[in-house]
Amino acid sequence: xxxxxxxxxxxCVYCASGPVDQRYLALAAEVGTGIAKRxxxxxxxxxxxxxxxxxxxxxxxxxARTVGVIPRALVDREVADDDADELLVVDTMRExxxxxxxxxxxxxxxxxxxxxxxxxFEVWTSRYIGMHDKPVVILDPDDxxxxxxxxxxxxxxxxxxxxxxxxxxxxVTDVESALDACAVPAR
Length: 187
Ligand code: AMP
Description:
Helices cover 42% and strands 17% of the residues. The protein has helices at residues 22-37, 50-61, 93-103, 114-128, 146-157, 163-167, 175-182; strands spanning 10-14, 41-44, 66-71, 86-90, 106-109, 136-139, 170-172.
């Protein structure tokens, strides 16, 4: 396993491993193209399937670097992204998330399923309790996360979650705003 240091803006993108709907694939590709245009690095789950594959392909097509982190057990299921500039094959899901975190300067969540939500909630909760200060951003052009966000607002209203936790999350509807929100000074 290599652990090349990632410097500068490196966006960890969490997104779906299932849908092949053109609308979602196009959104993922637009994000990859945007990352490349800014000369940033993509950090991904290291699969070629669905939106995960699309964002990585578009990033490379734009001439930028991709780092993929995939558990050995998912190499076949998610079709490991052998074209990644750096493909880190790990033993566990926890190691995957740990390495994705370590390589990332910001976290961007696109539409996804429960795996994507799991990844989002970990970086979101760890940000609001002060474990890191990297931007946590949701790009949601089609209200995919409306129900989840309404539920969290209800948690705030009922005292189960703080307004500060909601405020630590950036929710936007277009790619440029999402990348603007991810931009951090070079580390
Ligand atoms: P999904 O949103 O369910 O399509 O999943 C998106 C990605 O999240 C897939 O690559 C899953 O393998 C990944 N994933 C699901 N659960 C976890 C986890 N606990 N840690 C790391 N990655 C996960």
